[in-house]
Structure formats: structure tokens, C-alpha cells
Amino acid sequence: MDYFLELFVGGLTRGSIYALIALGYTMVYGIIELINFAHGEIYMIGAFTALIVATVLAMSGFDGISVLVLATLVAVLYSACHGFTVEKIAYKPLRGASRLSPLISAIGMSIFLQNYVMLAQTSDFLPFPNLLPEVPFLEPYAHIMGSTEFIIVATTAGIMVLLTLLIQFTKIGKAMRATAQDRNMAMLVGVNVNRVISTTFIIGSALAALGGVLIASHIGRINFYIGFIAGIKAFTAAVLGGIGSIPGAVLGSLILGWTESFATGYVSSDYEDVFAFALLVLILILRPSGLLGRSTTQKV
Amino acid sequence: MKRLAELRESLVIALWFMFLTFPILVIQVNTIEKTILWRWQNMLYVGLGSFALSFVWRYFLGKVGTGGRLRTEGEEDPKTRFLRLSGDPRVRRGAIAAAVLVALAFPLLSSTYQVNIMTTALMYVVLGLGLNIVVGQAGLLHLGYVAFYAVGAYTYALLYQHFGIGFWTALPLGALMATLFGILLGFPILRLRGDYLAIVTLGFGEITRLVLENWSEFSSGPSGISGIPRPGFFGLELNIQEATIYLYFLMIGFTLFTVFVTNRLQDSRIGRAWLALREDEVACQAMGVDKTMAKMTAFALGSTWAGMMGVVFAAKTTFVNPASFTFLESAMILSIVVLGGMGSTLGIILASFLLILLPEYLRAFSDYRMLLFGTIMVVMMIFRPQGIITNIRRTYEYHFEGKGNGAADKQA
């Protein structure tokens, strides 16, 4: 039973991190119908920025909690700026082009960012310090859920609530929903669509950076390639739940996290990624619009 | 006044990029030795570079207009002129004769190493043309092409290892296996829309690589299979130098064969069905094209070439392991197709020579190869989505000439 619970919590942790990244995919897709391939790279840049800032701060004699807060803030800021810039360079000039063009441009951007970080930093794995503080009250249950896992799950849950509030009750949230429904109509009623799209990229990227800091603390090492696999998996999660739907992304991420966790725990750990991809292929074949997605009919 | 505004904008852009690249480009931490390297000179380069590039960017963006659309009517693209010129039989014959001469004389004039590189470039030509069937002609974005390449390579490697089967027997078998895999993959994913299709093919490519890496009893895992023989020449044993030259000529033969077949395919009934499918799926179905069949043939035929090249790859390197079949390989073949202009044979040939030979001859540059590929993909999509050489199909244009009732056929 303890083993089961351990796997359950492991899956929950993974799922929470996937959810943070998957939200970026699903929000962008909901608004401009683009698979933002570079999103995984934004997350990787977040993790790298956090590592660099944390190391510099730690060597200048800052203490634990201020390093954590500052590194996370800088990482979130820089990732958001990267997301904003990527959209301006690689996607904005392609509005109105055929569907394939922005997708190829996105793949190009992803390859570019990966190699940019590799050349500017290193291609080796870098150890990532665990920045997250210990939570003392979990001590008796530490064999099931460590404090890192607890912080990850709690942070994600908090972010989800904030995001839902943002989308439901603020003006920009309303504009985002309007743009997702019908971009032209939103434009007609006075929504600044370009600003909405930029905001979406900024929010998505900020969440990805948060995910980056959390997962890097959890796993303990990063390199330039982490964004690719994590990005693909988060995208899988977003598709699983129905792309464009925010609760769907969370649900899909949790399902994916549990699938991976139980499959590696009970079957074999060599095929961890294979399970994720196989799940993606299966879902797309059986239910192309995802679990909570609406299937749209194509109008001519 | 306009100049001043542009100057100010570029200045802002330069400052923005200096800010944006600051942590990654300027600071390098060594977490083990606890040292920090500050590389302030990079910040200067980024500032100057982005300042200059922002002018270029603005100039070209203004020229292309929004959305990366094709040029307006009446204005002839210099590349189009080049293509029309190449349609001239005299020019064409001369160019082909020159190309054949250079190709035949190449092994005599250069070292084995050079011939080897050229063989690789030719392999990418064939791979590019194969992927072009799927991406360029049928318009299905395929990101797992390298999986079929791997299927071909492993078919030969395993058949040799277990049954001692030679190159010429393995070649059709490898192609067949890849085709079967193509059909196998094609079945479930035909219902998917463009971008989902891209992700599933990517997932399939990764699954193939991961299975090859982890299923050690089957594929010897990450260490791969070595000692695969090079193709023999009618029972003669060749030394490495001769084998390299032999393989080079084989590849020339393959390339010509591929160019011939893909060109014929393009103009065939099925090729026109692919074009229709690419342009508009619904309209294509309404015209009575069997959508499923067309997609399936595109996938299967595209995979066939990858399988064949996989066998050649195994024979050329005499060694296969899963590390040769990563996503980056797929991305490279895709960038060849994109750079060449989706659908254009000549463009793809030029693009693969450019992308394979350039990094080989500019060694200092080879670290930046992938960086360049990424940049090329973005820049091409924005400024020249039709590639270096536009694929021009026979089109009929309607010209309304004043009072006349002239609907003139124009062969572009």
C-alpha cells in the first residue's frame, strides 16, 4: 500500500509540473490555434536562468529563502520576456499564413533556442541545487511525500486557482475568452487582439518558468535538452485533456503523470517515455478532441 | 523624421535583446568549482548585432508585406526567371551535361574523404525528395521521418547479423519494411488534422528510437550493431577506397532514379490528388478524390525512400545505433525540404548540398549548424515560405482582356 501511495504521489507531482507547462500550450492553442513548439524551450530557459541567478546569489552570500524567491522571480521574468519576444519574431509576422508555416517556424525557434543555450552555456548536465525549503510537519509521512513534492503540488494548486480567477473575472481574462471564441468578432468589439495574444504568451511562459524551477529542484539536474521532452509530454497532456480547455490541461496532466508513475513502478522504467507517447497516439486515435475538448465541425 | 523614429526603434530593440540575453550569454557559472565567468563582450556583440539586424528585418518585412504572402501578380521574381530559363532546352541540356561531367569526374579529382561527404549529401538529397512527397506534395507535416530511416538501417543490420543477407537483397527488403511501417502508422493517424498529425509522427519517431535503445535483445541497445558489410561489386571484394567510390556512384544512380520517379509521381494522377489534398481537403474530397488512399500512398511512398536510404546508410557507415536517429535528424531533413521550397526538386537538391556541405567545409562553423537550421526555418517561413526555388506547377490563369472574351491559357 505504501508503494502504491508513493507512486500515486509521484504521479501527482509529475502531473502538477506537466500541468504548469501544459497550460501554456493550451492557452496559446486556444487563442491562435498554434502548437507553440518553443514552449518547452521557454521552460528550459526558466530553469537555466534560475540556476544561474541562484548560483550567483548564493556565492554573494544570500541565504536560502531569499535566493529561492529572487531566483524564481528573475526566472519567471526572463521566461515571460522570452515568450513575448518569440511570439513577436516567429509567430506575429505569420498571422494569416497557412497553418503549416507557423508550425515550422515554431520548430525552428525551438531548435534555435536549444542550441543557443547549449552554445552559450554547456551541453553537460548541470547539478541544480534544491532551493525549496523543508516543510517540517510532513516528517512522519516523508517516505510517501517529501516536502519538495508537497510544495510542488501546493504551488500548482494555488496557481490553478489564481489562473481560473484571472480568466473568469478580470478584464483581460474576458478579452482572452472572447479572442479564443472568435478573433475577428473580438476585434470588432474593440478587443486589442495583439495585446491579448502577447499577454497569453507572457502568462504561459511565466507558468512554464515556475514549472522549470520546481522540476529542476525536484530532479536536481538540468541541461539544454530538458525542454524538448518535457514540452512534448506537456503537449501530450494538453491534447489528452482537450487542447484549448484549461481544466482539460490539468486533468490530462494528472492522468499522464499517474500513467507514467504507475507504468514505471509496476511494469518497467526503461519505457517511461514510450508510455507517454503511446498514450498520446492512442488518445488521438480514439478521441481526437481529447477528454474535455469540444469537437468542432469544419465549416466550408 | 522617419529615419529618426526607425533609429530609436532599433535602439530599443538592441537594448531589449541585451537585456534578454543577459543571464544566458553573459554569465557562465561553474557549479562544481563555484566560479562565475562574466562575458561582458557578448553583451556588446548582441547589442550591435541586433541593432544592425533590426534594420535588415524591418526592410525585408516591409518588402514581403504581412503574412508572408507570395508576390503580387505581374511582378516577376528573379528566381522564377531563372526557372523559366532552365526550362529552355538548350540551357537545360548544357547544365545537365556539365553536372554529369562534374559528378563523374569528382572521385578522380578528390580524396576519399571528399567523396564520402558527397555521398552523404546525395543521401540527403534522396531523403529530402522522399520527405518532400509527404510534406511538399501531400502537405502532411511529418516529424518522425527518421523512424523509417531507422527501420531501413536496422532491417539490413539485423538481417545481416542473423541470416548473413547481403546489401542487394536487403535493399528492397528495407524499403518494403519501411513501407509497411508507413502503412501501419498511416492507418490510425489519417483522421488527424495537420498539427496533431505532426505531433503523432513525432511521437512515433521517438517511440521507435526509444524502443531501439531499450530493447537490447532485439537491437543490441545503445551500443548498436557493427560490422555491417559494404555493398559488394559482383562478388569482388573492394578495399575501403574503392568501396567508397562505388557507393558514391551507386548514390548518383539512386539520386537520378529518385528524381525521375518523384517527378513522374508529381505529374501523375496520384500526384495531382496530393496537390488537391494539400490545397483544400474538403474541396478535394468533393471532387471525388479518395482522401484516405491519397494520404496513405503519400506516407507509404515517402517511407519507402527513407527505408532504402536507411539500408545505404547502414552499408556506408557499417555501423548502426539509435543515436543516429534522433529528432534532430528529422528536423534536418525537414529543413532541407523547407529551404528547398516544398515541392521543388531542384530546390531540394540545392538545399541539401548547401546544408550538408557548408558545415563540412566550414569546420569552425559546424558548432553553429543546428543554430543555423533553426534560424533558416524561421526566416524562410517569414520571408520566403516558397523556398529558394519556387515550385511552379502548370497553372491556368484567367485573363480578362477588355472587350475581348479572352480567357487565355498561360503556361507559367
Q: Could you list the spans of chain A in which at least 5 consecutive residues all have pLDDT below 50?
A: none
Question: What is the average per-residue confidence, as pLDDT of chain A, rounded to a whole number?
Answer: 84
- How far the N terminus sits from the C terminus of chain B, by CA atoms, comes to 43 Å
The chain pair forming the largest interface, with residue counts per chain, is:
A-B, 67 and 63 residues
Write down the secondary-structure element order of chain A: HHHHEHHHHEHHH
How big is the Rg of chain A?
19 Å
From the structure provided, what is the oligomeric state, counting identical versus distinct chains?
A: heterodimer
- Beta-strand portion of chain A reads under 5%
- If helices are DSSP runs of H or I spanning 4 or more residues, what is the number of helices of chain A? 11
* Beta-strand fraction estimate of chain B: under 5%
Secondary structure: helix percent of chain A: over 70%
Poorly predicted segments of chain B: 66-76, 403-412
How many helical elements of chain B?
17
Radius of gyration of chain B: 24 Å
One letter per element, helices H and strands E, the order of chain B comes to HHEEHHHHHHHHEHHHHEHHH
Give the % helix of chain B: over 70%
The tally of beta strands of chain B, per DSSP, is 4
Produce a short descriptive summary.
Chain A is built from 11 helices and 2 strands.
Walkthrough of the structure:
The complex is a heterodimer of chains A (300) and B (412). Chain A is mainly α and 300 residues long. In chain A, 73% of the residues lie in helices and 1% in strands. Chain A contains 11 helices and 2 strands. Chain A has helices at 2-32, 39-59, 64-91, 100-120, 147-169, 171-181, 183-188, 193-219, 226-241, 246-266, 272-286, and strands at residues 126-127, 221-222. A two-stranded antiparallel sheet of chain A has the order 1-2. The mean pLDDT of chain A is 84. Mean pLDDT of chain B is 80; it is low at 66-76 and 403-412. In chain B, helix 11 (240-267) crosses helix 12 (269-279). In chain B, strands 1-2 form a two-stranded antiparallel ribbon. Chain B has 412 residues and is mainly alpha-helical. The two termini of chain B are 43 Å apart.
